[in-house]
Amino acid sequence: MTVSKRILSLSAVLALGSAALAGAVRAQPQAGPQETGIVFRNTITGEAMDLNEGKPGGRDTPAVKTFFQTGKNIYIDDKSCLRNGESLFLTSCSGCHGHLAEGKVGPGLNDNYWTYPANTEDVGLFSTLWGGANGMMGPHNEDLNPDEMLQVIAWIRHLYTGPVKDALWLNDAQKKTYTPFKEGEHFAKDTPGQCKPLAE
Ligand code: HEC
Prior knowledge:
The protein has 200 residues and is mostly helical. 40% of the residues lie in helices and 0% in strands. It starts with a helix and ends in a 24-residue tail after the last helix. The site of heme C has 24 residues, from helix 4, helix 5 and helix 6.
């Protein structure tokens, strides 16, 4: 065999090998439905969290897919989601954080002071809800699925009363129409939008 033939057959073997490898890689199970561009990390330990754990459902909505990919919560300012978010917040959070997230046993969530500055962004807030923080702030991934968490987050952002410049979750158009939350504003059951009314 000449040297050049030898190289040819060697590269044929290599090509076959890498084709087989590519097949093997394709056959691997997906990393999970999140197809995530974003790694969600525990607020306290910094460990990457598995978003497949916890309450089933609420993982294949356009909002959750967008959020896992971009960190952008498209429920912000959607009144149908705010209506749901309020109800979920009152069930799961207000006992410790206050009716208006003004703070009680847990800290206020309606101003621009955060114990964990990552909570200024929705990815950080989601991570805190998912994995918890210290002491009485346990993980909430058993009572809320990811879609419901986005609704709660939208409501918490809606309760905000601080300066608009610190409202990093709003886009420029939303910043222009921002008004601090006033008590007594609720959204009717038939409010149109992306979020269906919660089951009763
Ligand atoms: C049993 C009481 C309790 C419940 C219920 C509870 N929290 Fe908390 N939460 C706390 C306490 C206490 C802290 C402070 C923990 C710390 O500093 O690590 C906290 C901290 C937080 C923080 C961090 C705030 C910051 O300044 O960085 C966020 C965000 C938060 N909670 C959101 C929620 C949401 C949303 C819910 C409902 C899904 C909820 N909590 C339910 C007690 C609670």
